[in-house]
Task: structure prediction
Amino acid sequence: MTNTIADIEQADVILITGSNTSENHPVISSVVKRAVHLKGKQLIVVDPRRINMARYARKWLRPNLGTDVAWINGLMHVIVSEGLHDQTFVGARTTGFEALRKTVERYTPEYVEKITGIRAADLIEAARMYAGAGRASILYCMGITQHTTGTDNVKSLANLAMLCGHIGQPGTGVNPLRGQNNVQGACDMGGLPDVFSGYQKVTDEGARRRMAAAWKVDNLPAFAGLKVTQMLPAAHDGQLKAMYIIGENPLVSDADLNHAEQSLRKLDFLVVQDIFLTETAKLADVVLPSACFAEKDGTFSNTERRVQRVRKAVEPPGEAREDWRIVCEVATRMGYPMSYADSRQIMDELRSVTPSYAGISYERIEQQGIHWPCPNEEHPGTPILHREQFTIGKGVFNAIDYLPPAEAIDRDYPLYLTTGRLLYQYHTGTMTMKTEGLNEIAPECFVEISPADARSFAMPDGALVSIASRRGRIQARLKISPKAVQGTVFLPFHYAQAAANRLTNAALDPVCGIPEFKVCAVKLEKAA
Amino acid sequence: MTTAAHPIVIDGQEFTFEPGETILDAARRNGIDIPTLCHLKGTAPTGACRVCVVEVQGARSLVASCVMPAAPKMVVSTESPKVMAARRMVIQLLLASGNHNCLVKGSDGRSYEEYASRLKRAGGDLEPCPAWGDCRLQELAWRYNVTGGRFSPTPPRYPIEDVNPFIVRDFARCILCGRCVQACNEVQVNQAIYQGFRGARSKIVAAGDRPYRESDCVFCGECVQACPTGALVEKDVRHRVRPWETRKVRTTCSYCGVGCQQEIHVKDNRVVQVTGVENVPPNLGSLCVKGRFGFDFVGSSERLTKPLIRENGALREASWDEALDRVARRLSEVKAGSGPDSIGVLTSARITNEENYIAQKFTRAVLQTNNIDHCARL
Result:
């Protein structure tokens, strides 16, 4: 997030898109609901499902799946043509406005309505609300990113915020809500193929030299490695021979699972380090038992870049060990001794090579976490990014055209499918499904369908149906719900027994390699 | 007019105050402890319970300090005889308003065991209070030396509701302070519960007096954390965990990316309860159903406890030495035979920063490849 969670309450207008906030980030949804319900702030929800947050919204816009660039360009078209943009901000802090203006010129509300299904009048009203607000905040999540145009979608939201000067101030910003407790930290710490910790490029010779010196090795690989979504195809092709998987369950979470499973089976050697014998671990050659969050010390970085302490509360079961100890043991046995007394010693080393974390010591975050970047121990941290200038100097507008999703409905597969999470389960369910009460409330997979679609298929609520895409087939019970809009069904992806990702499309965003979980074409039939 | 020139006087001391502050705010900020029961930080004060009454010079009656704005030259007594008498009366009435048997005659000692055994000897079907030792009303009764005998207690009017997996609602222990209603409507804004009925029939209800399961309740448990008595208690905690038996460790929730600060309550090396840490960002005490109730995985019998190695197609238990040697040898062989880039590492959004740093260091410095990623895209 460019801004903080508390900061959302400062906004006059909040735009939520592609985030089912009340189910996936319930505590943040409360911040938004307080702002709307108790402080009279305005909420715009843009989402293909009539999610609970829509109940609190002044406007709910319903785009067709995968048409985000079109409606965002449409908002900008209205804003520019009505002169509602922040000309001072655009002039002083950005470049590329002319090209953007030319691109969005074509996205008239009528044209956008044809692509997105959003009524022209609603689009105009939403544009005026967002641009006219003194402060406006954008919250988004995987509904924006999990598309073949995911990168385009995010850049378009950044365009919108910059166009209106809604960035760098309290109550503004472009705020991705991160779905895993430490996904921010995993990125910050260099758990990515192209960067060391602190987003230092592996292709930058200076960065490589610094890290090599700190790690006491002669050299470090100079080219970006494979993304997770490239690793599995590489395994399938036989280029990748071995994988070491820590705390992940790609055999439920990846797109097109049938292909993912074939790929992992082709590896010569697979190590899985986890707290449970997951679907993925069952395929491994070696399984290493690790300690969970309650059994270790360390830090997590939350969605607002706040680095917070994790503290050991209980002993791990049996012989399970902290993940860092296991990896250090393997490294040592491979001839590179790695040994630390405790997590604090690792933190001190990582701070010394990660400028954005340099000032964040355990002592300083004992009571309350600090937002990176925090370059030294006197620095208070950075709750709001881009205050005076952008990291790269001027903010760059990216003129982006709408591209349709990779798969469209046709006669054989006449319904759109989108996927997501439920409030009562989490990701692949390895954790939440151990709590009986959560299973009692959310016991099994279901396919959410609109009353109109259910009528046209003549299938009652609770009927067992078969859902098939070009890649696979699963069975689930029908759940008729006002959240669903005619023509689009929804599946939660938590359930391995009826894994939604047997159906999803593994088509990738060409830049960041994210799969298009949020759009594919399916058909529904009575279960055999 | 600056408030510095026209301070408020509380218990004989002069204090400045900010515009908009109540007497309670000004007193607490200056270290004067006025007791409260219904007051819930961050929500609109209701003045419902009258425990926080104070005497204001010139006022016709005692005033509720949680709602009365501080004013220049106001002279306040927080523990005058009149105040003390009123508070004692309020507490006596609350103790008589339902099943508040913690102070059954002669058992107002401080031992739970003594209380429970006396309750048993007294006969009847009185269940010991699940909140004994962790109840604001009980604390106030001790502080003001009040027992429950003055008024005869109102018999329970409504049965316990527990047809949900997480929360037990015991209406006989409810003092109608309204904190749960505020927690639900003004903090979490789930709008599932509200004050229902009138007079002696008053009750906190959900969805037209239905069970939580049939309402908009999402089991965040904010109401349980706000409840000052034993009216709302976690089902798994009720009569199984006493607060003095647990050790509390503050940490960060392991579900989504909000990073809620939580306290893990530990008994015999098991996580038995989770509560939100009040007054600390980002969650200021709030949690969701997963963060509060979804901790059973930690102590699950399905946890991996030993390394496993595949042999003749099946996984078998192995020692750490054997497993680690196998991993190191096979990775070294693949690296030597097919090159560093034939190995890929998936690190994890579930593990700590320190561990992710170690994973990238291992991948880049030891395996000598940049093939490292995690599930950020999934």
